[in-house]
UniProtKB/TrEMBL annotation, chain A:
Keyword Signal in annotation: yes
Annotated compartments: Periplasm
Organism: Devosia yakushimensis
Protein name per Swiss-Prot or TrEMBL: Sugar ABC transporter substrate-binding protein
Species lineage: Bacteria, Pseudomonadati, Pseudomonadota, Alphaproteobacteria, Hyphomicrobiales
Record keywords: Periplasm, Signal
UniProtKB/TrEMBL annotation, chain B:
Predominant place of localization: membrane
Keyword Membrane applies: yes
UniProt keyword list: Cell membrane, Membrane, Transmembrane, Transmembrane helix, Transport
Cell compartment(s), UniProt: Cell membrane
Alphabetical list of PROSITE patterns matching this protein: ABC_TM1
Family to which the UniProt record says this protein belongs: Belongs to the binding-protein-dependent transport system permease family.
Protein name, UniProt field: Sorbitol/mannitol ABC transporter permease
Segments passing through the bilayer: 12-37, 73-94, 106-123, 155-178, 199-228, 259-281
Membrane topology, as annotated: Multi-pass membrane protein
InterPro entries: MetI-like, MetI-like_sf
Amino acid sequence: MKLTPLFVSALTLALATSASAQTLTIATVNNGDMVRMQGLSSAFTADTGIELNWVVLEENTLRQNVTTDIATNGGQYDVMTIGTYEAPIWAKQGWLVPLDGLSADAAYDVDDLLPPIRDGLSYEGKLYAAPFYGESSMVMYRKDLMEKAGLTMPDAPTWEFIGQAARAMTDRANDINGICLRGKAGWGENMAFLTAMSNSFGARWFDESWKPQFDQPEWKSTLDTYLGLMADAGPAGASSNGFNENLTLFQQGKCGMWIDATVAASFVINPNDSTVADQVGFALAPDNGLGKRGNWLWAWSLAIPKSSQNAEAAEKFIDWATNKAYLDTVAAQDGWANVPPGTRTSLYENAEYQAAAPFAKMTLDSINSANPSEPTVKPVPYTGVQFVAIPEFAGIATNVGQLFSAALAGQMSADDALAQAQDATTRDMTRAGYIK
Amino acid sequence: MATAQTRTLSRIMMAPAVIVLLIWMIVPLVMTLWFSFQNYSLINPMMTGFAGWANYIYVIGDPSFTQSLVNTLILVGGVLLITVIGGILLALLLDQPIWGQGILRILVISPFFVMPPVAALIWKNGFMHPGYGMLGHLWKAFGLQPVDWFNQYPLFSVIVIVAWQWLPFATLILLTALQSLSEEQREAAEMDGANALNRFYYIILPHMARAITIVILIQTIFLLGIFAEIRVTTGGGPGYASTNIAFLVFRTGILSNDIGAGSAGGVVAVIIANIVAFFLMRAVGKNLDA
C-alpha cells in the first residue's frame, strides 16, 4: 500500500508535535492586572516552551464557567482563576490539586504570603491556590471636597462620621455625590459590600444553628443606614452600579467618597485615567465601635483543577505568575504602583513600593484587620468575611442581593426586602439540609 | 407509482435521518425529565438520589414563581401588542409609493439581523443608561432628571427592546399580506364611497387576519422564552420585577447550580408554553382554517 508510509509519517509528526509543545489552558478574569499578566506571559513561554491558551472572561461568566467545568470534571482548563470563596470549598471536595511543589520551594517563599490571604486559600493547612493579587476594602475620598465641607477624615472613621461627611459633601447641582457604594445585585457585587458592612453593625448571616438572621435588628440598621445614605448622598441609578461603574464615577470626580476594593487605589491616583488623581485620600473602612470594621478580604488566585492533565506544567506557570520575580518584572515595565498588590509581606517592606504607592500602608492594615475565621461580632458557624464559605452561598446571596438592590431602587421597602430575604434564605438552607 | 419495493427501500434510507432527529429531540427532553426527579446539585456532591416531587414543589413554591409567570405573560402580551399594531402601521406605510422606499424597507428590517444580546447591550448602554445613554442626555437637554429605565421601569424596558427586535418580523409578514391584496378590490370600495378608515377596517384588516395570526403564533413561541435581553439588562431585577419563567429556570439551575430544581423548572416551563399555545390556537388559530 502506497498510503501507509504517508499515514505513518503524518502520525509521527502529530505525536512529535504534541510531545514537544505542551499547552496550558488558563481561565482568568478580565481585570487590568490579569490582562497585564497575559501580555507578559510570552516570557514564560520563551523560558519553558510551554504554550498558553487564554480564556479571558468577565467576572460573573468566569465564575459560572469554572464552577461548571470543575463540578462536572470537564477538564477544559489547566489553571483556573478563583477567589478565597471557592478555594477552601473546592479543596474540601477534592476538586483542586494542592500546591505542594510551591509550598516546598524556598525560592517561592510561601511564608512571605500575607497570613490572612494564605489562610483564606488553604484547607487543612495545605495551600490550594496561589494569590495573584489580594485586596480588602477601604474608604477612598476627595481631600478637596472634604476640606470644602470643613471636615477632616480620620484614619479610622465611624459610620456616623461617614454619613455626616457624605451629606455635607453632596452637591447635586454640580453632580457631586457624597458617597458612591455598590448597588448592583450579585453575591460578589452589592452583597460583598453589604455583608462586610453588616459585620460592623453586629449583624451576621446565620446564627450557630444556621438560622438566617435577616429578621434581627442588626440587619435592619445596616440596611436602613445604607439606604438612607444612598438616598441622601448617592448617585442616581445606584442600583445598577458595581465596582466598575463606581470607579468611573469616582475617576470623573462625581463621588466625594467611595468604599470599595483596595485594588482600586492605583486606578484612582493614576492621572491618565482619573481627573481627581492628586486629591485622593485613604482611610480604613468604617466601624461602629463594636470591634469589627466594614472591610472585606479577597484574593484572585490561581489553582489547578484535579481534571488537568498538565498539573506539573500548571504549577510551573502559577509559580511564574505569583512569585517575587513577577512583581519585579511588572515594576520594571509599568512602575511599582502597578504591581499586583496585597499578596506578599516583602512588597510592603519594599521602600520603592512604599514611595510609589501612597495607599500601601492602608491596604496592608485593611487586609490584616480582616479575620475570616471570626468575621462577626457574635459567633457564627462559618468562615469568610464578605461571604459565607458554603457551596450554596453564591446562589442564596445572589437572590438576597436582588432584594436589597430592589430596595435601593425604591421598588420595595427595607422591611419587605429583609422579610423576603429571611424567607428565601430559610427556604434554601432547609433545602440544602442545614436547617432540619 | 411507487412499488412496494421502492417504498420499503425509501423507508430504510430515510430511517437514519429520522432516528437521529428523534434522538436529538427526545434525549434532552428525557434527560431533563430524569434530572427533575433527582437530587442533583453541581456544587454539593452530597445531594444525590431520587427526589420525588421535591424539585417541583421547590420551584413552584419559589416566592418569585407567581410573579415570573405574570411577568412572562405581560412580556409576551406587551411585545405582541406593540409589534402587531406597529407592524400593521409600518406595513401600511411601506406599501405606499414613497421616495426612498427601498432604503426605508431595509432600515425597518435591519433590527432583525442584530443578535439579541447585542441589541440589549446597545439599548442598555447607548440609549437607556441614565448617565451616558442618549435618552439621558435628551432628558437633561430639556432640564429634566434622566430616567433610570431599568430600575424604575424594568419590565417595560425589556418589552421595548424585545419589541424593537420583533417589529421587523411582524412588518415583513404583514407587508407581504398587504401586497397580495388585489388593487381592484380597493378601487371598488373606493368607488362605492368607502373612506380610508372604512377601507382599512372592512377590506385591509380582514385580508391581513391570517398573517396577523401567523405573527402572533410564531412570536408567542419565541417570546415565552425571552432570556438574553433580561440577562444583559436587568438580571431579572430589581428584586424579581423582570424575572420571567426562563430567567427563573436559569437562576435556579445555573446561578444556584441546582440542576434538579432547574430541570423541574424547565419541565414546568414546557408545560406552561403548551397551555398557552393550546389556548392561543383555539383563540386565534381558527383564522388559519379559512
